[in-house]
Design brief:
Helices cover about 65% and strands about 0% of the residues. By secondary structure, it is mainly alpha-helical. It starts with 14 loop residues before the first helix and ends with a helix.
């Protein structure tokens, strides 16, 4: 699951990325709501006013951690699924392993993505990247069900949700 990790060095001046990194560290140590924007600025080594150039408050920073996490999560799952190659079953196993690796390697992002109840985005709409992540699970469910006789296939949405719930339960 290397695709999930961020590069560890940043070009000086990439404020947003440095703040996201600081937020992830603080979330790991203190939980999603256990720090302020000022503390994130201090850890990032920037002035207390600097974060406000990108984020109106801590929740906006957390929402960006979630969005950013889902972007990488979706890409990671898609790579693991690899269009069901070599077989849907083995690809599904790879998908499950990737899901768990993502949660293990980046607990801070995972926490904010699934457990804060923060509505990422302004009006609480579902994130496109979260939709893409679920879509990979849906495609996996579809490929797995295709091997069953048509009259014995369970509803796809149900199978997708079972895959998601199982992976999420184990990861949590």
């Amino acid at each position: 699951g290397r695709g999930w990790r961020r590069p560890s060095s940043y070009h000086h001046g990439n404020l947003k990325e440095v703040l996201l990194e600081a937020a992830r560290k603080l979330i790991e140590e203190h939980g999603a709501f256990g720090f302020s924007l000022t503390e994130a600025a201090r850890l990032a080594g920037v002035s207390p006013a600097a974060p406000y150039r990108h984020f109106k408050d801590r929740d906006a920073l957390l929402a960006e951690v979630a969005r950013n996490g889902f972007e990488r999560f979706a890409a990671c799952l898609d790579t693991a699924w690899n269009n069901g190659v070599p077989t849907p079953l083995s690809a599904c196993e790879n998908l499950g392993k990737a899901y768990l690796a993502c949660a293990r390697e980046e607990p801070a992002s995972y926490t904010v993505m699934f457990e804060t109840g923060l509505a990422p985005g302004t009006e609480g709409e579902t994130l496109p990247a979260a939709e893409r992540a679920f879509d990979v699970l849906h495609r996996a469910a579809e490929a797995l069900c295709r091997s069953l006789p048509e009259d014995e296939r369970p509803p796809l949405k149900l199978v997708s949700l079972h895959l998601w719930t199982m992976a999420h339960g184990v990861a949590t």
